[in-house]
Each structure stands twice: as structure tokens, then as C-alpha cells.
Amino acid sequence: MNLRVLLVDDSLADQRALRRALEKDPEAEWEVEQVSSAEEALERLRHPPLPDALVLDFHLPGMDGVTLLRTLREQCGERMPAVVVFTGSGSERVAVEAMKSGAHDYLLKDGFSPERLRHSLHNAVDAVRMARELEEGRRQTERAERAAREALAVRDEFFAIATHDLKGPLQSMLLSTQLLRRHLPAESRTPGVESRLEQILRGAQRMGELIDHFLEVTRGGERPLRREPMDLFALIRAKVRDLGPLGSTHPVHMHVEGSDFQGFWDVASLERVLDNLLGNAVKYSPRGGSIDVWLSEESPGPEGWIRLCVQDQGMGIPAADLPHIFERFRRGRNVAPVISGSGVGLASAHRLVALHGGTLTVESEEGKGASFIVRLPRGLGVREASSEQSA
After folding, report:
1. What tens digit of pLDDT does each residue of 126-170 get?
2. Which residues, other chains included, contact 197 with Cβ-Cβ below 8 Å and sequence gap of 6+?
């Protein structure tokens, strides 16, 4: 290790003793510079390279060591080297003054030993380096936080613009569909056409709600749950019915065990959960791969639990990815780049289920499909909730 030291002492004998002590340092190669006055020291420290350490005599002609230290702190600022005060006479008051003014150690010439000097200098240099590293770390953290805040501001502005631009054509789609539905000739009003138009309207309305929610989250966080009595079976059946046109490529089978699927939940949130789980089942399944939706009562009564399982025969999830599958921006490593996705859907679904006091888990093996299991507490009983709302 190469280190540079400036000896500030008006005694030639002391300068020679200090130089010899540093020349015999087994841990460092010292480049020694010498000056005899405070004024010379100040002039030297105006020019690079700055020394790593100063050995400073307290009693100097003209300016004493404490005054020099204070002047050096103003002149060098954060570049202030490590300082060890070295003096032939002193007191506790002088030592305290020196340490308060920026010295790292205080040595008396009467008790001087080469080992003690070297040890003191190494400790002082290490302390300065550590302080600089900590300060640099703090500054890097501040820069990173500032950059993150700026990036979030840019992101929020982009999302605001993007969502506004998305809602324009979406509103046009809604109005056009409603107009088409209103002016459709009687001979064309078959059940199939009515059903398809209804699906377009519901899908467009749902997309508008998702855009609003997305913008709401980016601006200020997740909205609170709006619990109300609802029938989970009816919601799931409607979602499965919407997948009907995919029957030739991804047949969907619904299995129901039980008869009471009433609960006190946030409808919009559970719609998002179902859209994500069913959408992923279709997205990651091969053509012809069936999707099974299981709905069952785990326990009856208003305090019971409902279990929902969405099972596909798709590519499955690698074992290494399973612990992270509900983290934001994480996708299975076996997902091809051509398959669209942002890696936020499952994280959002997991959070929404957790807000209901439930759980969302996964069972999967690569190449053998995946099963996503939602367990939901019914929450307040429907009768109790209705009475609370009417009150």
C-alpha cells in the first residue's frame, strides 16, 4: 500500500525521527513530504495531489496547530486528509481542542514510539477513507432516489397520456356498438348476434374500468375494497360463458361442488382476478388444451370459505420460478418472447385476494400445466351485510 504524508514540524530532528519511523513501516510504503510552518503547509495543500495524512506539530511559529487545523478544514473541505497532532508538550485541554478541530489522534513526543505513530496514522487514514466511502454511498443513494422519483414522474405522465389515448378509441367502440345494437334490423336480431354484441359491450366497459383502475394506482395507490353481497358462482359462470367462442381451441369445463357461493366481496377486484387466471390459462395452453374451473364450498355458513381452482394443460412453471411467480415483473423462464405479458397480472391478483383475507397459491410442474387455487373467506354474511347497509 502506497501512502503520502506531509510532516508539518519546525524541528529538523523531529522530522528525521518521523521519517525514519515511517520508512520502517512493514504495512505501507510512505512518500514523505516536509514543511516547517503552517503557511507552507497551507500553500502545499492548495495543489494536488493531496496527502493521505498530516503529522502536525502543535507548537508552530506564527500559527498554532489548532488554528491551522481549522483553516485547513475550511480550505480542504471534504478533501481534508487524516491528521495526527504531534507535540512536545500539551494538556488535556489542548488535546480536546485538537480533536474538536479535526485531528484523529494526539501524540506526545515524550511518549513517542515508531510503532505507536504508525498505528495512529493507519487508523486515521482508515477512518477518513471509511467516512468518504459512507458519504459517497449516501450520495449515490440520494442520486438513485432522485433518479427513481424522476423516472416515476415520467412513468406517471406517460401512463396518464397512454390511458387517456386508450380511452378515446374505447369510447368510440362502446358508442358504435350501442348504436349498432339500437339500429340492428329485426331480422338480424338473433340470440347469437345479441350475445356477441353484449360481450363486446361488457368487454369494452370492463377495459375502461381497468384503465381507470390502472391510472388510479399509478397516481395514488390501490383503492380500498368495496365489499357487497355477491354470488361468486354467477360471476364465474359469466366469465366462462365469455370464453365460449374459444371452445374449439381451448374447451372450458366448469365443475361445481356445493350450492351456496354467496359472500361479501369486491366484485371489480374478483373480476380482475378471474380475468387474469382465465386469460393466463388460455394464453399458456396449447391449441386444444382444455381448461378446468373448479368451484367448491370448503365449509358452509357465513364464516366459511370458498375454493376456486383454475387448471390448465399448458407449459407449466419451472421449479426455480415457482417461489417468485407472484412477484411483479417476474415471468417463467420457459415463456417465449412472442407470448405477450408484463409480469404484473399475477402479482396484482395475489394482492387483491390477500386484501380479501384469502390466499392465491399455485401447483405446477414444467410441461404438465398449472393449477392456481384461490381460497376466499365469505366475509360478513350476506344477511348481516345487507342489514348493515340498510342501517
Report:
1. 988 998 888 888 889 888 888 888 887 776 677 666 666 776 677
2. 177, 180, 181, 184
